[in-house]
Write a structure and sequence with these properties.
By secondary structure, this protein is α+β, with helices and mostly antiparallel strands. Helix content is 15%, strand content 35%. It is built from one helix and seven strands; from the N terminus they run αβββββββ.
Amino acid sequence: MVYRTFRFLGDLGDLGIVITPDITVPFKEDHVTLEMRRSSQDKQVSFAFVRYSAICPVCGGKVLLHDGGGEFIGRMVGRCHLSPREHVFNV
């Protein structure tokens, strides 16, 4: 359980972006990413909580980022709020 709780830190170091774990954001904030941004000039690292969304090209619903789960292991996917099982987009 501890490994699963803090695994996102290793993924953040490797990938630079992860879906933010529920323990780090308020309950009302959902589908938030944590990004590690590196400045190439002064080698500083900063962190940002960001929420990405888009309009579904199929039905016009709102698309939000989700963890890929068992279907897309280790990936983030965009899922349409109106049809989350059928309208899935690889990020």
